[in-house]
Design brief:
Layout: H1 3-8, E1 13-23, H2 29-52, H3 58-74, E2 81-91, E3 97-105
Antiparallel strand pairs: 1-2, 2-3
Helix pairs in contact: 2-3
Amino acid sequence: MSDQENEAEKPLQDTEVEVFVMPKDPDNPDHDEAADKLDEKVTERVKEAIEKNAPGGKSKQLKAVEEEAKKAARDTDPDKIGEVEVTVHGKDGDGDSISHTVTCPTEKPTE
């Protein structure tokens, strides 16, 4: 196995998660409250996904972060929430700092 392949399998270290949920109407208390609740929920889900996918390495962890952000945007009320943004900061196997951001707009389900 080459050094590059081995590097891809190393998990992120010292990760920090930042979630920003944009209410559709920031002046509406219901929208603001919905955004706060979703922010807490997404933060926990992303942290769990990072930890759960650590054995798969950095790439698997970042893919899981993207999936959680997409899921949160898809499963929320698009009348109250505008978009979900998740940023993960951490260090790769060499100790280099990395930052990965995923922004997902909410959409009304099409049926």
